[in-house]
Structures are given as C-alpha cells and as structure tokens.
Amino acid sequence: MPSSKASADTALPLTLELEDFKGDFSFDALFGGLVNELLPDFKEEESDLAEGGDSVPNGNLRSVPGAGTGGVPLFPAVDELLALFKQSCKELVDLRSQIDTRLQNVKQEVIAQDTKHQRTLGEIEKGVDGLFDSFARLDTRISSVGQTAAKIGDHLQSAESQREMASQTIELIKYLMEFNSTPGDLMELSPLFSDDGRVAEAASIAQKLRSFAEEDVGRQGVSSAVGAANASRGLEVAVANLQDYCNELENRLLARFDAASQRRELSTMSECAKILSQFNRGTSAMQHYVASRPMFIDVELMNEDIQVVLGDQGLQSGTANIARGLSTLYKGMADTVRKEAATITAVFPSPNDVMSILVQRVLEQRVTAILDKLLVKPSLVNLPSTEEGGLLLYLRILAVTYDKTEELAKALQSVGCGDLDVEGLTESLFTAHKDEYAEYEQASLKQLYQIKVEELRAEALQQQPEFTGTISRAKAATLTVSPQQQIAVTVVTEFVRWNEEAISRCTLLSSQQQSTLAANVRSVFTCLLDQVSQYLTEGLERARESLNEAAAMRDRFVIGTSVSRRVAAAAATQAEAAAAAGENSFKAFMIAVQRCANSIAILQQYFSNTISRLLLPVEGAHAAACEEMGTAISNVEGAAHKGLLQCIDTVMAEVERLLSTEQKATDYKSPDDGVAPDHRPTNSCTRVVAYLSRVLEVAFTALEGLNKQSFLTELGNRLHKGLLNHWQKFAFSPSGGLRLKRDITEYGEFVRSFNAPSIDEKFELLGILANVFIVAPESLASLFEGTPSIRKDAMRFIQLRDDYKTAKIASMLNSIMAES
User: Which residue intervals define the domain Exocyst complex component Sec10-like alpha-helical bundle in the entry (predicted)?
Assistant: First the structure.
C-alpha cells in the first residue's frame, strides 16, 4: 500500500511499491489510497458551499454571489492531486523498469535450466534404452532356459511313461503267462483275478490281455513262418483261457447287477454297468437289463394289453373304443419307458444306446403283439359280411391303430431313443398292410356301394304294389319308378361321405411319399366317379323306362276311324290314362335330371375342395383326374340327353293327340262366315297351351343354363313343325285365317317364355304366314314382296284357302312366280 514520503518541492503523501501489486490487486483500492488524505477536506468545504448556494437541476453548484477571480476556488486540492498523479506515474514507470529487469533475469535462468534439463533427459533416455536391451537379453535367456527345461520335462515324462508302460507290460506278460499255462485251468491265477474288490482292475487287464492275444494270433495266422505258427499256437491257449475268464467275470457282474437291480441299488448297478461296458461295449449288460424288464416278461401284463384295447366285445367294440383303449395302453407304455429312462441315465455310461434297445423292444414286442391281434387282414376273395363289419371295419381299425402308434412313436422319441430310427421302425410295422391298402380301400367302397344298391332295391320291392293279370310283379317293378328307385341326392352325398373318409385314411397312411399319396387318392376318387356315374345313369335309365312304357301305352290304344262309338270312348279313356302316365313320367324324369345336376355339383365341389389340393403337387395327376371326372359326367349327360329327347317325344305326342281330338274343321271354316269373327283362340289351342304350361313347369325348375336352353329350343322347333303339319289338314276361310292368327299369337306368347330368339322369330313368321288366308287374292303378291322368307311355306298354305280353286289363285301364283 502507499506510504508517506517527503519531497523537496512538495510534500507527497504516498510512495508506490511492488508489494502493492501482489495478491488480489484492486485499482480502486490503489486509487483510494492515493487521494483519500486530500479528498476529505475538499468534501467538507464542498458541503459548506452547498449549504449557502443554489442548486440547479443538473446537480452542479453555482458560484456564490459576489465571488470573483480573487475568491476561493471550487476545487482547491487539484494542484496537489496533479502533483500526486505525476509522481505516481513516475514511480510506476520505475516499477515497470524493475519488473522488466527481473523478467529478463528469470528468462535467462529458465533457458539455462532448460538446457540442463534436456541434457539430463538425454542421459536418462540412453540409460533406459540400455536397460531395455538388458531386459530383452534376459528374457531371451529365460525363454531359452524354459524351452530347455520343457524338453527335459518331456524327456522325463516320456521316460516315465515308457517306464510305466514297461512296468505294465511286464505285469501283463506275467498275467499272460498265467493264462497261457494250462488250457482250461483258471485256478492258478493271481489273486487279482479272484478278488471281488478289484473286479474293475481285473476286467481292464483281462480285456487288454485278450485284445493283445487275439491281435497276435490274427497277425501270426497270416504268416507262413514256422516259428510264428508255433507262437500263435501258444497264445491260442491264452486266448481260450481269457475268453473263459471274461465270460465267467461277465456272468458274475451280471449276477451282481441283477441283485442290485432287485434292491434298487443304483450305485452298485452303475458300478457294474461301467465295468461291463468293457465287455463288447456293454451290449450284453444293456440287452440283459432291457430283457429283464417286467413289461417284457410279465405274461399277465401282456395279456392285459389286448383286454385294455378290445374289452369283452373284441373287434366289434367299435373304432372309438379301440382308439380310447390304444391311447390308454400306449400312454402306460410311454410312462413306463419314461421311468426306465431315469434309471438308465443314472446307471449306464451310455444311456442312449440302452434307450435305443428299450424302445426297439417296446415296438417290436409289445406293439407288434397288439397289432397282430387288431389287424387281421381279411380276404379279398371272400369278403367279410356286413354283420362282421365288412372291409370297412378293418380299414378303420388300421387307420386308428396307425394314428395311435404314430403318437406313441413321437412320445418315445421325446423321451429319447439314441440313434434309433423310431419313425422308420414304426412304418415297418405296417408295411404288410400299407402295401395292399389301396386294393382294400377300393374293395371296401365297392362293397359299400353294392350293399347300398341292394338296400334300395329291397325297399323298392317292399313299396311296389301288387299287379294282377298278365303283368307280373317283377315286370311291373321294371316299369314303375318308385320313390326308392328314384335318384336321391342324399344317396350321392353318402357316396361322397364314404369317399371323404377313405381319402382321410389315404392322407394318413400315404403321407410319407407324395407320389404314393396321389396314386391312392386317384384310385379312391375313381371309385367315387364310378359309383356316382353308375347310380345316376341307372336312375336315369329307370326313369327312361317309364317314358318308354308310357309311349307303349299310347301306341297300344291308337285306333282307327271306323270303330263303334263305345270302342272309341273306351279308347279315349285309355288314351287319357296313357297321357297322364306320360305326363307323370315326364315330371319324374325332369326331377331325376335335376337331382343328377345337384349330385354332379356336389361331386365337383368335393373334387375342388378336397381332391385337387392332394393331386396338384404331382405332375399329371390332377389333369388325369379331371379327365376321368369329365368322362363320368359325360356318361351321365348322355343318358340324360336320351331321356330329354324322349320327354320331347312324350310332350309332342300329347300335343298331337290334343290337336287331333280337339281341333274341329269348323274352327277355321265356319258355315256362318258372314257373322262377326270370333277373336278367341280355338279350344285345341287353349288345351295345348294349358298342357304345355302345366307339364313344362317342372322343366323350368329342373333344368338350368345351357341344358334348359337346348331343351326348350328343341321343343320349340318340334312344336313349330308339328303345328305346321297339323294346320295343313284344314281349309281356311278369311275369318278362319283370323282365328288361326289368334292361335298363333297364343302359341307365340307361350313360347316367348322359352327365351329362345330363334323360336320367337319362327312364330312371328307364322303370324305373317297366316295373312295368306286373310288378304284378297290380288294382294298375295304384295305379301310375298314384303316377306320373301315365307314364300316356300306360303305357297303350300295358299292352297288351303277355301277359295283357292274358285278364285283361280293357282294361275295367279304361276304368274307371280314367273314374274319373280
């Protein structure tokens, strides 16, 4: 801080020192220390002046009134402050010079110290490098010494191994000499081979001796040297004695193993199993253990198996009960194997091998015994009766047994069975049945079909009424279609249900190979096609037989014109009966066609939903099945087509009968032709349209699509032709022509319901054609000019005009034809 100091010119209150700028330096503190001694006096004077003067808004003091240049100054210490500040600046400059000098000295000292430090650091680095080199040489030396020590250790270890091997070889040779002493004499052996406490050691040594002796005998056996032959004969004694000893030791161990097994002493069992693993890898011990399980030797337990599955009813107990029985039995087997697996894992050093033997024994013994009882393959020559379940019972039991056995195989696989191919072994149990499965499935479907057909025939015979006279019951049965003989969609649905069940068995039994599955599915589906085709075709044929019988009845009661009235009345009554029979037969056939269409739709839907997805993966299978289905449907369509043509014949026969009996000559040529014309259709036309409306009602319902269009078009053509032929039997007056045109309009309105444009056009032309009876003779030429397409038919119809001869229309027509 500043201190007091005297000056020659003026007394200065403070002097600056370097210590003032050290530490927490503050300029305000330094300045305050310089001026505080002067400013207090000024402040007192200032306050006194402020009390007597005026203040202005900016806060500055005004001069006192009357004060002039010779008065007191406003800031009297200014001169002292200026002197102080000048002295302070001078001292600050001096201080800066001192500091610069010190800094220069310090800098030179730092340079000198840095040079010294660099020199020292270089010397240290050289020393460190030398130290690293020394460490590297030391490490190399240590490594060399370590390698030498390792080699020495290896040599020592090898020497120790050779020593131990030599010692063991000496021991083995000594033991081998004991076994090679006397054939069959095992009494003079070392105590090692009879001590029960050292059985494991004895077994190991015996196996080594046996391996060495057998190898030596085999090697010497291929040598032709006489000395070698003598050596081999010597070791053959040892081989025989060792074989006897190993057999005796193995039997002892097995007996001890069995005793421990009876007591459930797992530790003893494990010890014996471990020792026995040295004998043929423990195969005898593993097989002995598996064979001694109660599940394979308990006769009562095995006899209970078939009782659990079949109960008291045997194979007739039903597949559902057999499935439940198999599930119960197989679950018990799986649980037993699971318990045995725990024991096997705790006892045997190679549990997977033991599990493989155990599972194989379960499938080959227990499961095979059940399958032999369940799957009794029936004969395809003498099929089992339906009372015995038929072939279907065998197939259902086969499917259930296969499915449940597959589940057992999966359960055993999850427990563990080593390297055993459980799936392949399970498949081999059913090989004999799967090889002929497709033949049995087809034979079963055929048997079911025959049984169903016989049932339907029996029901039809029971419903058939008794006939008297010359027509026998059997003949009547063939002529009359009873409800039981009619086609039933429910029967076809039953066929599909049989087939669907068979396909499910195909999928189950043939799923391993896609080609085999497709082949079996095709063969089973072909059976369905044959059944549906045969059933529908025979049903249509029976319906056609009723049409044929109705036609025979019509022909039987056709009479001539020269008969008595009583005979004609009786014949008319019989003709009405024949017409009714024909109408009933027509309706029955239409219903049969409708049911055929529904049945075919069910067949196609079944093929699309079930069969297609099974055949598509195999190339060509789906296309072949489609072709077979097309052939079967085509057969049904052929029978239906024949019947539909007969239906048209039946309808047209009745139309012709109504026209011939109801149409009067006066309908178109009335004697009272001058009176007002009758605009009503003729009675024959009314009867024909009414008959067609009634009989075709079932056709409109039964037929669909192209079948309906084709049938109605053919019927329309036949009706058109029949009406033309019918009208050519009559003569027409102008009023008759008007009535004919009214009939044609009635027929045209009816056939319009056929939705057949070609038929509508023909009847429209008929209406135009009727104008030849109405127009005046001189107007016929203009009629031809307006509609030239009717010229041919019109030339024939003009001849039916009642004024054809009187009006000399023939010569007029000749001139018209000549002009044209």
Answer: 201-812
pLDDT digits (tens, 9 = 90+) for 369-390: 889 888 888 888 888 888 888 8
Tokens coding 619: 């190339």
Q: Are 180 and 210 in contact (CB under 8 A)?
A: no
Q: What is the largest CA-CA distance in the chain?
A: 193
Q: Do 291 and 261 contact (CB within 8 A), yes or no?
A: no
DSSP letter at 8 equals: S
Helices (H), 317-389: 319-347, 351-361, 368-374
- Does residue 719 lie within any of the structural domains? yes
Pick the closest to residue 172 from 199, 197, 194, 190 (CA basis).
190
Place of tokens 């036949």: 718
In a domain, residue 380? The reply is yes
- Which domain covers residue 307, as residue numbers? 293-436
26 falls within a domain: no
Q: Residue 3 has what DSSP assignment?
A: -
Cα angle 743-747-753, degrees, rounded to a multiple of 5: 155
Same domain as 257, residue 129:
no
Surface-to-core class of residue 412, CB atoms within 10 Å of its CB (0-12 exposed, 13-18 middle, 19+ buried): buried
Angle between helices 734-751 and 705-727 (to 10 degrees): 170
Contacts of 95 (CB under 8 A, 6+ apart): 16, 17, 18, 21
Using the structure block, give the residue that is written with the tokens 């053959």. 236
Give per-residue pLDDT as tens, 181-224. 655 555 556 555 555 555 665 666 666 666 656 566 555 554 54
Inside any domain, residue 776: yes
Query: Per DSSP, what are the bridge partners of residue 61?
Result: 55
187 residue type, one letter: M
pLDDT band at 229 (very low <50, low <70, confident <90, very high): very low
The predicted pLDDT at position 445 comes to: 94
Nearest to 815 by CA among 780, 772, 769: 780
DSSP 453-487: HHHHHHHHHHHPPP--TTS-HHHHHHHS--TTTS-
d(CA 187, CA 241): 11
**Contact, 244 vs 184, CB < 8 A?**
yes
**Which residue, of 593, 623, 639, is where some domain finishes?**
639
Phi, psi of 620 (to 5 degrees): 90, -20
Task: Count CA within 13 A, CB hemisphere, residue 229.
Answer: 4
Check the CA dihedral 436-439-442-445 and report its sign.
Answer: negative
CB contact at 8 A, 535 and 445: no
Q: Are residues 740 and 788 in the same domain?
A: yes
Residues 748, 621 share a domain: no
Contacts for 784-787: CB closer than 8 Å, 24+ residues apart: 784/816, 784/820
Same domain, 348 and 316: yes
Q: What confidence category does residue 752 fall into, taking pLDDT thresholds of 50, 70 and 90?
A: very high
For the record, the structure tokens of 171 come out as: 């021991």
More reliable by pLDDT, 580 or 209? 580
The residues, ordered by sequence, that sit 6+ positions from 675 with a Cβ below 8 Å of its Cβ are none
The Cα–Cα gap between 363 and 381 comes to: 32
